[in-house]
Amino acid sequence: MRVVVADDAVLIREGITSLLRSSGADVVAQVGDADQLLHEVRRHVPDVAVVDIKMPPTHTDEGLVAAQRIREELPEVGVLVLSQYLEPAYAMRLVSDHPEKVGYLLKERIFSGEVLLDALRRVDEGETVVDPTIVSMLFGRRRRLDPLAVLSGRERETLALVAEGLSNKAIAARLVVAERTVEAHVTQVFAKLRLPESPDAHRRVLAVLTFLRG
To answer: pLDDT tens for residues 32-51?
Structure first.
């Protein structure tokens, strides 16, 4: 997997790069601001860009804006956005505009090579990966018009884990059930949310988007 890493904090940037390289990823560029990020992504067209939300010059949402530009200009490039703090509005902004091949994680979760690589692989495969803290917050939120009301409790729980980017096998391990049971729950989720099979749509992504927007 070819990756561009963008973070203005040198130690974090080097730490992410070291984790990726030790796990077998090819980090083709490291940058410290959004302009450099866009330049290197256009130059290398990596599989995924790892992007800090807040970068120079204003340290507000430069990374998020750059991530959106990347998805618009180069839809084949996945984007994993990182944040120091829990900012659900930023996650929703990114996922709502470009639901496929995007992820949003808190930085505290990425300093495990296994977690980081798994998130990158799933983003590269076209899925949506959302930090479990945000998923938990949305899962517990009361909705006036809940599009997920048609789902059973276990189906909602399964969908929340899909939103975290977990595979059926990983969900089965988390829920301590058979993988075929998870497959059945996922199939029911697709059916109840009226997400028919289509070569032009990724149903797991569409289900996650319904969950996040609900």
So the answer is: 999 999 999 999 999 999 99
Residues 6+ apart with CB under 8 A from 207: 159, 162, 189, 190, 193, 195
* pLDDT tens for each residue of 48-102: 999 999 888 888 889 989 999 999 999 999 999 988 877 777 777 777 777 789 9
Number of domains making up the chain: 2
Residues 6+ apart with CB under 8 A from 176: none
State the pairing for strand pair 2-6/26-31: parallel
| Domain CATH code at residue 68 | 3.40.50.2300
Q: Is residue 46 part of a domain?
A: yes
Please tell me whether residues 102 and 198 are part of one structural domain: no
The 10s digit of each residue's pLDDT in 91-135 is 777 777 777 899 888 888 776 677 788 889 989 998 888 887 777
Q: Which domain range does residue 36 map to?
A: 2-130
Looking at the structure, do residues 124 and 146 belong to the same domain, yes or no? no
Residue (of 50, 75, 168, 189) closest to 126 by Cα position: 75
Alpha carbon distance 77, 82 (integer Å):
16
